[in-house]
């Protein structure tokens, strides 16, 4: 089964990469601001009509995930927040909350090496107390917002498919188009930006005799203003020494070894792959440590259909005994109309005391009629 998963993943990446004439990760932006927030809630109540208490159900789940990565030529920061809560009136209720933040300062403008300072907080129903630590260290790597080039590529593909352009824009014109889109804040109005975009397209030499019509301008405007389709590339790796102010096991404070990895990659305007990982532990890190890993893939199948998958893994090791938690989220969002939204979510989770994977399926349909 693992082999088929790998094959399917390679096919998806291959299909995505074929849609772009200029590698998105070749684009460089002076400012990168990545943020992602997801909230999921489910509740189920069932009263057994035969009076069997073991068949009664009264439970719910609440999950919140927030990630932000910010990067400029001189400095940057990253923040992550994760909350997983399972509430049951008839059974055991559990929760896990983690929060991490780091500020980094580059040794040289446009350089990749930096020093960082950060903090981490953790709380769980299995802990005896709140866990709190601070850390210092060095790292390497950068992130780049390639959303302007992704939007320019989608505009190019649209105009070619519609027949407005006789061929795809030259890479130089595509980069110029992306540069103007990325500089939207410097324009007095969107209309001024559209004038510059139109000049680049008309000067490419591939514009059809009819030129850009009202429908083309409307679609270009929509693609430029579209939100929720940000694309990023890059990575950073951090290692450091920390100090545990509060021990979640109820022990004393002490020195910690810490590390973190962030990675973002995209092959096409309609795809995004993100990875975020971290580890921490005392000098006897093999006997006691914590590892967190999150990987997500988002794919825009069409303008009205989006699919996403997220895998989260966490491991806590106490006295050389690890406990693992696996969580898989699959989401499918359909927007056939601007006033209609259909969502399908499947959540699979496995914890140490589970005898099998838990499965939650949620289907939501909303529509504005008036």
E-strand count: 14
Largest sheet, described in full?
Answer: 14 strands, antiparallel
The residue-averaged pLDDT reads 84
Helix/sheet category: alpha+beta
- Strand and helix order: HEEEEEEHHHHEEEEEEEE
Q: Which stretches are poorly predicted, pLDDT < 50 over at least 5 residues?
A: 1-20
Write a concise synopsis of the structure shown.
With 370 residues, this protein is an alpha+beta fold.
Write a structural description:
This protein has a 14-stranded antiparallel sheet, with no helix packed on it. By secondary structure, the chain is of the alpha+beta class. Helix content is 19%, strand content 50%.
What are the key terms here?
alpha+beta; 2 domains; disordered N terminus; 370 residues; 14-stranded antiparallel beta sheet
């Amino acid at each position: 089964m693992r082999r088929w998963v790998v094959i399917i993943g390679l096919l998806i990446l291959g299909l995505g990469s074929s849609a772009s004439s200029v590698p998105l990760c070749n684009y460089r932006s002076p400012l990168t601001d990545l943020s992602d927030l997801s909230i999921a809630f489910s509740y189920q109540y069932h009263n057994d009509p035969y009076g069997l208490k073991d068949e009664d159900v009264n439970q719910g789940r609440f999950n919140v995930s927030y990630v932000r990565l910010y990067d400029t030529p001189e400095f940057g920061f990253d923040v992550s927040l994760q909350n997983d809560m399972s509430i049951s009136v008839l059974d055991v209720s559990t929760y896990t909350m983690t929060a991490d933040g780091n500020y980094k300062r580059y040794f040289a403008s446009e350089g990749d090496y930096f020093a960082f300072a950060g903090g981490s907080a953790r709380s769980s129903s299995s802990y005896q107390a709140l866990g709190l630590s601070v850390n210092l260290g060095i790292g390497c790597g950068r992130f780049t917002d390639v959303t302007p080039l992704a939007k320019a590529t989608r505009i190019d593909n649209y105009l070619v498919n519609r027949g407005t352009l006789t061929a795809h824009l030259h890479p130089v014109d595509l980069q110029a188009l992306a540069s103007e889109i990325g500089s939207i804040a410097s324009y007095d109005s969107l209309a001024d930006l559209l004038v510059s975009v139109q000049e680049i397209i008309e000067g490419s030499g591939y514009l059809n005799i009819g030129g850009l019509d009202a429908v083309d301008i409307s679609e270009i405007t929509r693609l430029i203003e579209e939100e929720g389709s940000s694309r990023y590339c890059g990575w950073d790796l951090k290692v450091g020494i920390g100090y545990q102010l509060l021990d979640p096991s109820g022990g004393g404070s002490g020195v910690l070894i810490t590390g973190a990895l962030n990675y973002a990659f995209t092959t096409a305007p309609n795809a995004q792959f993100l990875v975020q990982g971290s580890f921490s532990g005392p000098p006897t890190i093999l006997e006691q440590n914590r590892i967190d890993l999150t990987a997500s893939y988002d794919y825009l199948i069409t303008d009205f259909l989006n699919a996403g998958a997220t895998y989260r893994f966490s491991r806590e090791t106490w006295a050389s005994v690890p406990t693992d938690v696996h969580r898989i989220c699959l989401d499918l969002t359909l927007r056939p109309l601007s006033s209609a939204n259909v969502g399908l979510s499947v959540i699979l989770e496995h914890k140490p005391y589970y005898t099998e994977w838990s499965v939650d399926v949620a289907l939501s349909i909303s529509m504005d009629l008036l």
